[in-house]
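re: ur question from yesterday

yeah so i grabbed the chain u mentioned. its 763 aa long if i counted rite. heres the sequnce exactly as i have it in my notes:
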Amino acid sequence: MIEAKPTFDIGVFDLPEYRVEGREKVTGAAEYAADHLPPGTLFAGFFGSPVPRARIRSVDVSRARELPGVHAVLTGADIGLVRFGRRLLDLPVLAVDEVRFIGDRIAAVAAESREIVEEALRLIEVDLEELPAVFDTREALQPDAPILHERAAEYRYLGGTRPPVPHPNVQGHVHVERGEGDIDAIFASAPHVYEHTFRTPRQHHGFIEPHAALVWIDAAETVHIITTNKAPFSLRGQMAAALDLDPEKLDIASYYIGGDFGGKGYSTDEYGCYFLARATGRPIKAVRRYVDEITSTNTRHSSWIRLRTAVDAEGHLLAHEAEVLFDGGAYAAAKPLAHLVVNGGLAGIAPYRVPQTRIDVKTVYTNSVPAGHMRSPGEVQAIFAGESHLDMIATELGIDPLEFRLRNVVRDGDRGPIGEFFREPRAVAILEALREATRWDSDPLPPGRGWGLGLAVRHVGGGKLSLPMRLESDGRIVVSITLPDQGNGATTVIRRVVAAVLSVDPERIVIDRGSTAGRPSDPGVGGSRVTHLGSQAASDGAHKLRERLEALAPAALGVAEGSVTLVDDAFRGATRVLATFDEAAARLTAEGPVEVVGLYDASAPHDANEPADFNFVGYAIQADVDAGTGQVTVVRAILAVDVGTIFNPIAHQGQLDGGFVFGLGSAVMEELIVEGGQITTTSFADVKLETMADIPPLETVLLPTSIGPGAWGAKGIGELSNISVAPALANAIFAASGVRIRELPLTAERVFDALAERRVDRA
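ran it thru and got these structure tokens back, copy pasting raw so excuse formatting
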């Protein structure tokens, strides 16, 4: 495995690696949201709709309110129609007139124990008039489909004006057409045109820690919240908008988060807890049960994808058309992006040159659980479809799948299908690395075994981040952050960068976690942005602090101005040590800590004429298919990945390994089955997450570069290694068995049925 190192290397990155928060976690000292229990805390629970769509005739909570130990029972009639969301505020805290999915909240209870809460919920009686429901995205777009949000014009939209939609059951819509020609004419005259459809299911993130929230209101009317939300400043803005509160009166803390994978950017319990805290004057705590996690909030979008591609006689792509429908469920509240889509839906054939494209992506309202972001949102679905589609085309043309990709991938100066301009596109390098690692052109395989490829590219996220830093008199350098820790190692990156720039022992760097109160805003964790933003803000702050200390040091140490440098954890002048860092720190801080703020802003819209930073990634997966049972066994998995400077080699490889396992689980077993709007797979025993026994060895080929947006050329990695596992495996299954599976997951049952159908066709 090739390793990349910073070009500016003073030894910090060669030190033994350990996580900044590791000791707290392994000793149990790290406190998660569910661990906090202030005196007087009451427990919250919510009554959800038992039907997918209905008009609320009446809600009777009288028996629940009379139950000993119950302090408050609230309905929509008590709090009014209060809607919330990350961008579109379309989800009621408590339904007032209509429910739109099974689990849509109708009442909230606060009581002295969880057991009392459960009993109170059983005593609530509702009278519902069921209404026509729709569960299929294509049916929801028909002219005669029931309109699920007839008052959508009343919904508040954060950040401007909501973009128009082509149908009232559309949550969000993105349409991209690119190229100079007439795409319909190209399709009409092309030597070859291929069209295929694909489906992917809803999936759950599989984090260990369920959502939790603790809310209390102090005497000064400040609302304090401890939450599992990974973007506390974003949550503060959303709650301020929904509840009509001054953002400064919301103090939100997210310290440690037990896993995320995209699922902890969206919060629901905090809103109900706020109203219960207001009604009772007591702290309110909500911790979700896993059955509620799985069945009532924020799954990956299921999808229906139709792809159509025109190809010339030599196997070059001429035109591509994609229609992507995502099932957004009953509400769009979980979506943060401006167009209320998951933009990964545009990425199906992103690594390829296509002169003419037309891509249409919609998220659609249905009477199902609201869907939101999950690791690489939209890309997992679209890339499975795109890479399978291209493999099918190569097969029809009789061209080797690797060669077909090489003929069509982007190279220097090329733009992607939606106009992406890649800085240092590395698709060719990825494919050639896989060719070499697999011995693609030389090693014959036994019957029932095949190789499959999956190629992808992903953006590196941006945003704006500030990191206050200060030197204390005892020699500690304190870096204040609100970025939560959900396992990504961000604080270790920040610590190592600061230590490297200052040339001090990393032990001096202290990470001070805090709430939103009195701290500069940050975008939170997500979007593969944290290494990019965190390393740059840390580098900026550390350089400012270094310059400040070296400017102050001569007077503090009694030497000539401009003669002091900070090297190897000591202040030096000419060839001698003037003072240890500890000695100098005491003098430099005689009048108080020396403070700076590291700043980095990558939030401005990108100039389309300037190349942007992306990561290219590819898999070659070798699989066996048992013709008698349909069982698929992964024999080898090879990941070739485009990486920047690596600050934490162990954590970096851990992200790659974890992404592979995540992608493999999504590919072969994970599926939330929905029947009539009800998720019937209600536990991880049903969902069947990957375990150690299911994981094959992974071979990793790192292709390092110093070109990246982070400090010393770092890039993001967290959402990269899961996105092309499924198509690589689907393509391997075809190579091994001759059957093509166009729906995830790639189960033995689906392979068996396809083999049986092929045998019948041949007979």
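noticed a couple things. The first strand starts at residue 42 and ends at 48. also Residues 1-10 have pLDDT under 50 and may be disordered.
anyway ttyl
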